[in-house]
Amino acid sequence: IPVESFDLVIFGGTGDLARRKILPGLYRRFLAGQMPEDARVIGAARSDMDDDGYRAMVREAIEEFVSEQKRKPDVVEAFLGQLHYTAIDAKGEGGWDKLAKLVRKDVVQAFYFSVGPSLFGDLATRLHKHKIANPESRIVVEKPFGRDQDSAKALNAVLAASFDEHQIYRIDHYLGKETVQNLMAVRFANMLFEPLWNAQYIDHVQITVAETVGVGGRGGYYDKSGAMRDMIQNHLMQLLCLTAMEPPSQFEPDAVRDEKLKVIRALDPVAAENIVRGQYAADEDQASYIEHSENPESKTESFIAMKVDISNWRWKGTPFYLRTGKRLKARMSEIVIQFKEVPHSIFEEDAGSKANVLAIRLQPDEGMDLRVTIKEPGPGGMRLVDVPLDMTFAEALGPEGADVPDAYERLIMDVIRGNQTLFMRGDEVEAAWAWTDPIIEGWQKRGDKPAQYEPGTTGPEDALMLLHRDGRRWRELK
Ligand code: NAD
């Protein structure tokens, strides 16, 4: 179903994010028939070029970042026909009057701030000064949203000076993933899970976001951030919130975000012994984190594992273990719900009974896997075996199910529809920083150094110990 007609201005429309994600995503929505024929995308950035120059750049981006099977030459050309470009200086007045003439007033207006956060204030103010934005225009902002609570508050204030909260879409692309939304469907549209979704029946939860790549050329940038700021405070925190939140009364933006905020506020402070930080060492092919960061003294972590407790009735006593890192053994993201053992087994001790596990995979192949225990087939007596009830979308839903839209595509369409459910609210982001700030300050005060770990492994040994000492183990990284 096509969305309403729109003008989407991409500030930073020539940048890496625009070329890799935003524009290819829009093309795929166009191909799917969701982008109306009179909708327009307007690139606005520093480089001097005309519409044709921009179209040539986007044609290349589509060739590079859209799968061959989806590149239909006539569709690509039709899509390019809906693109425009205007050079703009965020820090000065150049180009703004031209943009004001270009943007239509009678369609949905969205402004994607695909530029560094230092330009947010300039863009927000000039959109009003040049009478481009109206009270229903939407702005989309990217991570990182601040580096601590104070800077996030300052950014929120800068945006709030020009736009109302209902106009601000803070992207966390993890929330755009199909499985993440499916987590909510599974929890709240089935009678099966929700009654068991608490500390009485769930032993613990694991959330893993593992990457095989290192920081490479982004070392200088990453060194100011680290896994805590770059991954935990936003992506893993959002996944934790959706897993742990109470049922909202409606699937409606503020109802969902209110419940997520309550979870963040119920997080206990994390003691130093419940956190393991690491930095990858070098191997034959690649340099170490320290070499990538170009700072021989760097204490920034490229890996973190932590045990997080939530102080509320639902979760008291059921820890959430989070881990994320670079240059690990496998690229894999998943949320694992580890249920408790049955209270009393009626079968022989060595029958092989295992507790249930629900694994929600975000990548590589999105899907869910529920492990249940059954009798091993055959005449060998009552032997138990756990088997997967596997719900890989591709298999369950046929080819249509396999065609899962990229997170960015879905989120941009939500912006046009005016649906903020999958975007972070300002108070959520500030609360998340309020929880992470003291942890980071603790490291700085004590001068804590991350442990070195071998690339291609599961991270530092101590991360394994974090669970072993509680009689638990991480799911295999594969
Ligand atoms: P980039 O450096 O590749 O592109 C920056 C863009 O901003 C360019 O189009 C440039 O022309 C424009 N720009 C810079 N200064 C300007 C000015 N004064 N006036 C007008 N335009 C100006 O950056 P990027 O990687 O595309 O990232 C953009 C934003 O998205 C950043 O905030 C980044 O943190 C965030 N982000 C990027 C990625 C990614 O994968 N690249 C992922 C997540 C978040």
TrEMBL record:
**Known EC number:** 1.1.1.49
In this protein, which residues make up the domain named Glucose-6-phosphate dehydrogenase NAD-binding? 9-182
* GO molecular function term, any single one: NADP binding
Alphabetized Pfam families for the sequence: G6PD_C, G6PD_N
Top-rank taxon of the source lineage equals: Bacteria
UniProt record, GO biological process: glucose metabolic process; pentose-phosphate shunt, oxidative branch
According to its UniProt record, which residues of this chain constitute the active site? 235 (proton acceptor)
Among the entry's GO cellular component annotations, what is one?
A: cytosol
Q: State where NADP(+) binds.
A: 12-19, 46, 143
Q: Which PROSITE patterns match?
A: G6P_DEHYDROGENASE
To which pathway does this protein belong? Carbohydrate degradation; pentose phosphate pathway; D-ribulose 5-phosphate from D-glucose 6-phosphate (oxidative stage): step 1/3
- Catalytic activity line of the entry: D-glucose 6-phosphate + NADP(+) = 6-phospho-D-glucono-1,5-lactone + NADPH + H(+)
Q: Where does substrate bind?
A: 173, 177, 211, 230, 326
Q: Where is the Glucose-6-phosphate dehydrogenase C-terminal domain?
A: 184-475
| Keywords assigned by UniProt, alphabetized | Carbohydrate metabolism, Glucose metabolism, NADP, Oxidoreductase
* Protein purpose: Catalyzes the oxidation of glucose 6-phosphate to 6-phosphogluconolactone.
Q: Which HAMAP family does this chain map to?
A: G6PD
Q: Can you tell me which family this protein belongs to?
A: Belongs to the glucose-6-phosphate dehydrogenase family.
Q: What is this protein called?
A: Glucose-6-phosphate 1-dehydrogenase
- Protein's organism: Litoreibacter arenae DSM 19593
